[in-house]
Amino acid sequence: MAFLSFVGRVLFVSVFILAAWQEFNEFGVDGGPAAKALRPKFNVFSKHVSSQTGLELPPVQIRHLVAVTIALKGIGSLLFIFGSSLGAYLLALHQALATPILYDFYNYDADKREYTQLFVKFTQNLALLGALLFFIGMKNSIPRRSAKKKAPKQKTG
C-alpha cells in the first residue's frame, strides 16, 4: 500500500514538476513566455484588487513572480513525493494564489469562448487544490506513532 501511495503522489505532482521544468528552461533574462503571459493578467488582477479594496499592490517584477512559482512547484513537488505536509502546503499556496490570476474567467462574458476555456482550467485547478487540502487533512488526522518504551523487566528469584 505504501508503494501505491508513493506512485500516486508521483503521478499527482508530475503536472507541477513538468510545468516547473518547462518554465525553468524557458526562463531567460525576462522570465520567458510565462512572464509574458502573466504580465497582462497580473495587471488586470492588481487593478481589480485596488478598485475593490482601495489598496495598491506593491510594484513587482513579473520575472520574480515566475521564479517564485517555479520554486514553489519544484520544491513543493519534491517534498510532496516523499509524503511531506510542507510540500502539500507549498503546492496549495501556489494553487491558491495562481489560479484566480491565471484563469480569470470572471473578466469575460459567459458567451465568449475564452470564458469556457478559462472556467474549465479554473475548476481543474480548484480540484487540484482540493486534493492537496484533502492530503493535508488526512496527514494531520492520522495519529503519529510514538516510540513505546518497554517497561523494565522485573527480576525474579
Q: Using only CA atoms, what is the Rg?
A: 21 Å
Which structural class do you get from the secondary structure elements?
mainly alpha
How would you describe the shape?
elongated
Q: What is the percentage of strand-forming residues?
A: under 5%
Helix content: over 70%
Spatial gap, N to C terminus: 47 Å
What are the low-pLDDT stretches, counting only 5+ consecutive residues below 50?
none
Largest sheet: none
What is the strand tally?
A: 0
* Average pLDDT over all residues: 91
Q: What is the number of helices?
A: 5
- Elements, N to C (H/E): HHHHH
SSE map:
Blueprint (H helix, E strand, L loop, with lengths): L1 H24 L6 H22 L8 H20 L3 H18 L10 H29 L16
Question: How would you explain this protein's 3D organization?
Answer:
The model has no long low-confidence stretch (mean pLDDT 91). The protein is mainly alpha-helical.
Question: How do you describe this structure in short?
Answer:
With 157 residues, the chain is mostly helical. Helices cover 72% and strands 0% of the residues. The model has no long low-confidence stretch (mean pLDDT 91).
